[in-house]
Amino acid sequence: MTVSRPAVLIDCDPGIDDCLALVYLAGLHHAGEIELVGVTTTAGNVEAFQTAANARWILDLCSLADVPVAPGQPGPLKVDLTTTPETHGPTGLGYATAPETAAAAVTAAGDRDWRQMWVEALEAHADLQLIVTGPVTNLAAFEETHSPAAAQFGAISIMGGAVNYRGNTTPTAEWNFWVDPHAAAQHFHAAAANVLTTLCSLEVTEQFLITPQRLEEIMEVLGEHPVTQILPEALRFYFEFHKAQGEGYQAQIHDLLTCMIALGKVDYAATETTMDVEAQSPLLRGTSVADLRDHWGRADNACLVTSADIEAAHQEFARGCALLASH
């Protein structure tokens, strides 16, 4: 019996940690463990077109020129876009910059609409897995206009929120949910009852740290693979940012861990609960709340990840890089 490989659509905003997530997914795709059917991008770390150019460059370096990339919504649903040049660099990849050819490729494919990509992917793959590692803007916009198609995803995983935990953007809010709080709130209000969103929030993802030593080990695994052109310069910027924030000369790689959890590649613990996100209060904008004691009496809409095997995640990333290097 032939078992089909999982089909994966990632919606991201590269972004240095998104970059590492794409490298990992490329390794799994080449090895036949997943089918990466497309990449759409959000406005977040940088503008949506630049995130698409960054994604295109990474995929091309990983010999995935046939995987389509499309920029999504140009900004959040109801608030102005805020980007993070201080965190991810002026173009999103630290000290690395996507070449003009990557931007030209995105422009040349400008007739490809991100919504149509999602619809086609859903029609082609019965159990399509959606992984969202940037603001939830595209998902919320899609749910507004394509319901009940959105309920047809086999799985939805999101990196976002800081549940009962300090934020990294405000005292209570995580970046992705703060950038577009209305989108995050709208998604959890509209979440299909038969598809609980797997939520990888800050208190788990920031435990996955890459240090200069870890980077050196990954570079050895990758050998002469073209993606080694960008990883040191991207991560050096990220290391410097985290050091300036008092986190040490290392980097939290939220999006990569989220992909591993979404695909079941590392052990993790989770609890089913009801999630909501504050969108109206300026003071608490983007704050994520889990009703762990059922005060609201509302149906569960999320599977909240509470812990993950971090050492296994490092081993899994090395395995993904080895798969990429061998193809």
Automatic annotation (TrEMBL):
This is Nucleoside hydrolase. One of its GO terms (cellular component) is cytosol. Residues 8-313 form the Inosine/uridine-preferring nucleoside hydrolase domain. One of its GO terms (molecular function) is purine nucleosidase activity. Pfam families: IU_nuc_hydro. The keyword Disulfide bond does not apply. The lineage of its organism: Bacteria, Bacillati, Actinomycetota, Actinomycetes, Mycobacteriales. It comes from the Bacteria. GO terms for biological process: purine nucleoside catabolic process. The keyword Membrane does not apply. Keywords: Glycosidase, Hydrolase. It comes from Corynebacterium yonathiae. Transmembrane segments: none annotated. PANTHER family: INOSINE-URIDINE PREFERRING NUCLEOSIDE HYDROLASE, URIDINE NUCLEOSIDASE.
